[in-house]
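Researcher: Let's run the pair from yesterday's discussion. Sequence first, then tokens, for each.
Model: Starting with the first of the pair.
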Amino acid sequence: MYPIQVKRTLAPGVRLYEISAPLVARKAQPGQFVIVRVNETGERIPLTIADYDRKMGTITMVVQEIGFTTKTLAKMEVGDALLDFIGPLGNPSELRDSGTVVCIGGGVGCAPLYPQVRALSQKGVNVITIVGARSAEHLILTRELGRYSNQLHIATDDGSQGRKGFVTDILKDLIEQGTPIDQVIAIGPMIMMKVVTGVTKQYNLPTMISLNSLMVDGTGMCGSCRVTVGGVTKFACVDGPEFDAHQVDFDEQMKRAAVYRDQEAKALARLDCGCRNGH
């Protein structure tokens, strides 16, 4: 069992959890993820590692409440325990040792971006971070990201904080101003990563994205998380979760993300009414 040590709300429908998992914390690296099952009847879902504390033996996750399992997790409190907590899984981020890296986080994508920003800063890399959200109340971890960024830019759809617009507007400005950029890292909604990739491709800027795909086992056996990269089938769990953005088939990924939408809606309806097994 894996007890919840800390639980707090970061934004509407977004919560931070610190989970006691000493063996996972001992090996965790930026870019990796865990597979979680909250109870015996729960599904297995992948959650990206937002932080880790080897001394305290904890893993930090930032969870958006959108599906059956994440909403079930939201009902748990400090002291409650998760049944399964497997990891760290996936390949650690391959981070530069020098130059300038633009790190772009959209919504809860700022959580897995944070350990990468921190690691890059500790390596002496010039880090320019761009954070985007629908509105100011949906921004998360801006203070933490700003602490390790040479520049921090904020964009909100409604203009309630930072620049009114999108992260790509700020990225285009940086490029057009002649800012030397060696790499772009983007983590967030699929459509955001696709649009960012469209911009960086025009300027031939190396770009990495992280795919939080549908997964079951997280070990490459089930094939649920397959993604086409450069015309070749890869598995996000063992080949990723990070890939060269210019090689990813985003349209295919967005279609796959919607495959179980009807089943998820039925599961949420059961959760809302307190039913089990469809009754």
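Model: Moving on to the second of the pair.
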Amino acid sequence: MNKILSITIYVATVFIACNDGNHAAAGAADATAENAGDTSGNSVETRAPNTSYKPAFPGQTRIGRVTTKTPYEAVVITSELKNPWGIAVLPDGRFLITQKQGTMCIVTAEGKVSSPITGLPAVNSRGQGGLLGLTLDPSFASNKMVYWVFSENVDNGTLTSVAKGKLSSDEKRIENATVIYRATPAYNGNLHYGGRILFDKTGNLIVSTGERSDKETRPQAQSLNSGLGKLVRITPDGKPASGNPFSGQSNVRPEIYSYGHRNVQGLAWHPETGDLWENEYGPQGGDEVNLIRPGKNYGWPTISYGEEYSGGKVGEGNTQKEGLEQPVYYWDPVVSPSGMTFYTGDNMPEWKNNLFIAALNKPHLIRLVIENNKVTGEERLLEQENQRFRDVAVGKNGALYAVTDAGKMYRIAKK
């Protein structure tokens, strides 16, 4: 049975009704702007920061809260997924979903889950590895091609790898699966694979890779001769895309698009500006949202707004350095941001062009209002569900759809 979480708003009073004794997060308040909500309140974050670092500019962290005015409801359309990780919206409104252990499945807008789709290369699902993000070919309606990221076993460790294949006509398997790119060097660890993937407007792929977490691999995020800790831009065949910022330079990997990243698990194109945005994990504190410019260095591990899990400084404890990009926004303590999308639907006009991010730590859905490339408000949705949200997408019907590590899929839409 679907669980319906209904939120009805009357000026300053919140009435929350739901099935099964659980509540969804929502709120009510007067607002001064249609898309910004109430920015007069304090930050949504009430926990003390882990560090004493100061932001580089006002509004870079702990921005004022906003509150959705429009009544909406969150419905659990299925609880039958197995560690879902990525969502791709099919042309007919269904969803193709990766599951961490190594299979895909299709979910209808009503929540019916298909049998596992097989035929993919073997994944290493230990730790943070497995079958990760996916995207559809721009011509998927005719060619049925799917692209995905996974953690691959090799002789001397594991890699973040990219593969492609064709969804069979009966939708039960991936045909002719081929690995097209490997982010070398390999490392014997099970953390920080990155794993998001999307197409750009030129028909090339943007892929995120992690720096594999350990102190011994961290410096490779700064190395232009390593595939770790990067955004790479490749062709559908896995070759470096033309026009990349480092093309033609010696001792530099031509596929690199940006570098100095820790573990990017969110990628999205802004629907109006066309800019590429990402989010990435910090260590203890310092989760980031970045506006990506080709060829730029985003600082890890040279600068960070977080600290080591042991409590010490990361490197020299710097948060700013000339030539290194500042995050548009950061969190301390962490929210552990994962998949993200800009809202482009018509179901909730109040959310138009807002950035929604699936959060794993203090689990919730993050809503960020962004104006002129600055975050102007933050809201936390579905906190009381206590689910680790892994990815979020906008459906063909204009609703938001989100998956959780526990196997749930939510539809969030106007009531």
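Researcher: Give me one sentence on the second I can quote.
Model: Residues 80-400 form a domain with the Neuraminidase fold (CATH 2.120.10.30).
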